[in-house]
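Record type: monomer structure entry
Structure origin: computed from sequence
Chain ID: A
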Amino acid sequence: MVSVRNKVVLITGAGRGIGEATARALAAKGAKLVLTDVDEAPLTALVADLGDVAVGVRADVRDLADMQAAVDAGIARFGGIDVVLANAGISSYGSVLNVDPETFKRVIDINTTGVFHTVRAALPSLIERKGYVLVVSSLAAFTACPGLASYNASKAGAEHFANALRLEVKYQGVDVGSAHMAWIDTPLVQDAKSDLTAFQDLLAVLPWPLGRTLPVEACVDAFVRAVERRSRRVYVPGIVGGIGWVRSVLTTRLGEATTLRHVPRILPKMDAEVKALGRSESARNRAVVEGQSTRSA
């Protein structure tokens, strides 16, 4: 294991949820932190709470220049970047036929292209310091859920990006891991449960443990261990690793049979609820997007 004391860790999506909790856990172990989020208020509050061990930069992972500015600020403050936790992510609601196309695209841009921008900006420093990258993918990279096509596709893309990156930078002393979690009690999942009874119905019919929601702390503990061990794979809970080994079975007729039985009931209900909401994403995400539009204007 490698001590994280005085290591400089860049975390995207650090304002809330897993990003915030992991930042606090790493700070408690003596790490220096470069924290980014598109939502400035919670990021500012977190940095103020952590004090001199953290620098916060409001940055949109969809913008390479934003991420480069964040990396440059971290290097100026702490001398370099040792670890990247590419954590920023969102989801959309609704079937492929009915989801808002702009929301769908934004999910892909944040969850997959955002990982590229984060790594691209930090990679020279990571190579110099023989660092570590942990890309936050999901159990969704192994098995899909109806009504969440953008999330499924983006997390599969994030995993395969990590696989390609590992091949490119291993000889330069950089290790790369991908994290695969089942549902975690983050604002993303909390908002979906609050907005859509159909999402709750979906979780209820998924085979165990696919419908189970775990506390954020379980994910944070796994992420901190991954950084200390420079892990190749992270699974939360551990059984997700077994699911990864049999992922090809899950897309066969037999593997899809259980979910398919419930789709005719749950998916139309989800689309109806999304239509009633007037949005294909959480109110929290919509507010951030509207805030960005106001700032740009």
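Annotation 1: Residues 101-129 form the longest helix (29 residues).
Annotation 2: The chain has a mean pLDDT of 95.
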